[in-house]
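Sanity check

After download, print the first record. It should look like this:
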Amino acid sequence: MKEVSSRRAGSARALLRSRPGEKTVISLITVGEYLEYSGAPAGAEAVLRTNSLVGLSLEIARRCALLQSRLPRRLGANDAWLAATALHHDFTLVTADRDFDRVPRLKLLRLS
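Expected structure tokens:
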């Protein structure tokens, strides 16, 4: 989404191009962050319409609480929700954020 708003291709678009046919799922937490920081630039709606969105549930809330209580150093609130969502659905989390490295059993795909 950052690449859409800046109108330049980067590591996220390269990753998507390298995995044709793979389904991309975006957390509503990510959507909220994006809209908060970007002000919903042109192209944002197209990105949101062409990807599946995943919301929160009681099961994810429980996993989030358990995750935060077991980590020696808590994640930020939104990052905890993202990690719990990915763990719950067995998704691979695509990120450039190193904070996720300390989450056990979380499958990560690192953006440069």
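If your output differs, re-run the checksum step. Summary of this record's structure: The radius of gyration is 14 Å.
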